[in-house]
Amino acid sequence: MAKPHAAVGLSEWPLLSLLVGPLRALWWLFSNPRWAMGLLTFVAGVGLLGTVLPQVPSFMRGVPAAEDAWVELRRDEYGPLTDFMHRVGLFDIFQARWFAMSMGLMIASNAVYIVGRIPAVWLGITRPRRQVPDRYFEVGPNRYDFPTPAQPLAFAQALRNAHYKVDLLAERGATYLFADKFAWANVGTLLTHGAIVIFVLAAVISRANGFSVPIFLAEGLTAPVFPVVVQPDQMQVRVLDAVGVFGSNGLPTDYRTEMAIYQGGQEVKRCVSTVNSPCEYRGYRFHQAAYYGYGAELLVRDLSSGNAVYHETLALEDQRPAPHITVREAGTSRVLFDDAPVLGAAIGSGNNAEVAALARIGLEGGQSLVVGLRRAIEADGGDWMLLLLGAEATELREGQSITMGGLEVRFTGVTTVPALLDKSLPGAGGDVLLQMSNVFYGTGTTSEGNSVSAPVRAGTPTLTALGVGDEALVLKEGESQQVGGYGYTFLGRREFTGLQVKKDNSDNLIWIATGLLLAGLFLSFWVPRRRVWAKITGVRTQLVGQSGQMANLRREFRSLAEKAGAQPGDEED
Amino acid sequence: MPALVIGAIAFSIWWLEYRPSDEAASPLTGEEYGVKTLPVSLAPSGSEVGPSVGRLAPDFLLPGLDGADIRLRDMRGRPVVLNFWASWCAPCRQEIPQLVAAFDRFRPDGLVVLAVNVQEDRETIARYAREFGMSFPVPIDRSGEVVDQYRLLGLPTTYFIDPEGVIKSIFRGPFLEKTRGTRVSDAIGESVLTARIREILD
Q1: Residue A25 to residue A31: CA distance in whole angstroms
Q2: Interface test with chain B among A225, A269, A305, by most B beta carbons within 10 Å
């Protein structure tokens, strides 16, 4: 004969009781608010410590030699504590296992809280309180009382018509009625709490496993994705084409990059990244993040061996002024020159004044003009002045013209050309000033046929190098010149692209958490649970209800009473 | 059916993640590329192997750019300049002409230059090698195992190994002396690179 169910206890199952004891203790611990607060305080404290103490740079992480070298540098500051701090992970707190564990415990604590509430919420939904004490009809916050009896069945029907679930109970000479609507809305708070737990979990995963690195690269160049010397999964990205499309107002309308991704020495993907659609490979997303339009690819060969000794794509990040000059034939007004010549390096400066080196402008018929640009000292207004050198040197302000030697020269204004001071060009005695002219910012002609506003006149990109040899070295795109045993070739203008390479395994969790949060908020605020209790006697109808703050129960009660054939009269406070 | 599905998934994971790559082993000998243990004859008892000065240089077998296998221990008896580089490393690009000039100058003395490329594709390496006139062997460390073994802090890094296989010195960073205002081939006259090469030649 089987024993009665109640007689079966854990003592009958010693192994189970051994397991249940610690589990109960663990459950008690995780549902203890003090434990939760303690964890929160600990995580906040070490988080603060992580921002105060120096942390191992991400690109050194996982490279033992680099980490050791970095820790050695900390020894001056932390002395004998250095090794201990390194061992316990104080120099890499956010990657330390114990930090991840404490975050995990915090998540578990939250999860236990949520799970602990589930039975009560479930009971509240499936077995709600159907009766309230009579006194509640006198003191409840949302009550309605009118001195005529409503028809209980008609009232119940009115509630059902309003999508309430209704129970009727006759007792002690009165009819009690309970109506419930949106009972499942109570799950909303659980969903919201669940969302918070998943958000924290996603943050932990993102912190532990997330990856983000910026790459700034010119067309034709390759860069490694992981900024450490070597990595088993190392990838290289090569920019095949960087495109920057600009509107007629000069504002960008599109940036995109055509790229090839290499891994293990093989091209594994070829794709295009745009601002809204990153290229993706094995979970790594290559986001289009930036664009820079002024780059120049320069090759220098040693003429004796024929070998390249310099091959770089330079970002011309500086700017040099260039005067926009228009020269016309005085008699006919025929335009002989209309451009912004590249000037030489500054030959004098001081006291807010700068004298630029000169440029020689070649005109038709073998004529030439020697011009220079000077910024007047501030006392004179600080304006740019165009120097016209000849038999009689003269100066023009912006907008001014002069007629000299049968030529009408107009100084239209000052524009700029992209430039760079290079310190490593072979064959140069010192710094070399590189200036690129005849280029405009952005991809000139795109598949959409857009063109851009140009700071200088567009044409064949030209690179002017000052500091290689005695005279300026002027190279059009694709041109080579020999100076002092070296061959200099301007391979062409190149555009740079900025990519942000990211990997975050917590992406999906974020979406789930966001969905839960929205669902929870929607349930809690837009469809709050409504419960109505009614007591109907032969002379009186009393209603009381519970709902969210936004629901106007009193108005609803009045409407329901009218539909039930009662005469509610004036509303009672 | 479940077993078939599990098997297919397991095979896919192996195929994508763990299958040996085409270039993981030598097509000539079938031997796997990577770090190798020095035989006792080349690493007598008492000698230490490791990537630091005074120790025997760790041995490796890597595929060369020209298709031939390159094994460090085969260079025993000759001074070796072991350089680690990549085309994306700007200081490496600046340094390569120095190495090329040094190799041309000291090749008659038996100098070996091995320029180990770090994890790049063959086409990129070939383009740079051709352009910069790298006539010395270019082993390709596709997995990065050799770089790991040599505990590199950054690129470029150069090890100077004497004919006995002992690391005499390590130079981290590029050799850039005297590149300005003069010809590269002249510049190496008294450079650090030259001085270190002389140490392993003597």
Answers
A1: 10
A2: A305
Q: What is the DSSP string of A523-538?
A: HHHTS--EEEEEEE-S
Q: Tell me, what's the pLDDT at A411?
A: 92
Please give the C-alpha separations between residue B174 and each of A96, A229, B84, B156, B183, in angstroms, as whole numbers.
Answer: 35, 15, 11, 6, 17
Q: What are phi and psi of A240, to 5 degrees?
A: -90, -40
CA-CA-CA-CA torsion sign (B143, B149, B154, B155): negative
Q: Around Cβ A87, how many Cβ atoms within 10 Å?
A: 9
| Check: complex ipTM more than 0.85 | no
Distance CA B151, CA B84 (A): 11
Residue A445 · residue A241 · CB < 8 Å: no
Residue with tokens 């509240």: A124
pLDDT in tens, A440-464: 787 764 433 344 434 445 578 999 9
Q: According to DSSP H, which parts of B30-144 are helical?
A: 90-106, 122-132
Structurally, chain B folds into a number of domains equal to: 1
Closest chain B residue by Cα to residue A426? B180
Residue A236 confidence (pLDDT) above 50: yes
Query: Which structural domains are found in chain A, ordered by start?
Result: 20-119 (no CATH), 128-182+528-563 (3.30.160), 314-488 (no CATH)
CA A171 centroid distance within chain: 64
Domain holding B113, by residue range, is 35-201
Longest dimension (CA), chain B: 74
B64 within some domain: yes
Provide the residue type at B112 as one letter. V
pLDDT, one tens digit per residue, over A143-200 is: 888 887 778 888 888 889 888 999 988 887 889 999 998 888 888 888 988 898 888 8
Distance (Å) of CA A267 to CA A236, A281, B12, B36: 9, 12, 20, 28
The set of residues, in sequence order, having a beta carbon less than 8 Å from that of B10 and lying 6+ positions away, is none
**Interchain contact, A485 vs B183, CB within 8 Å:** yes
Q: How far is A371 from chain B (nearest CA, A)?
A: 30
Distance from CA of B132 to the nearest CA of A (A): 5
Contact A307 B133 (CB under 8 A): yes
A300 alpha-carbon distance from chain centroid? 40
Asked if residue B44 has a cis previous peptide bond (ω within 30° of 0), the answer is no
Residue B58 clears pLDDT 90, i.e. is over it: yes
Where do the H-state alpha helices sit in chain B?
2-13, 90-106, 122-132, 145-149, 184-187, 192-201
B169: CATH: 3.40.30.10
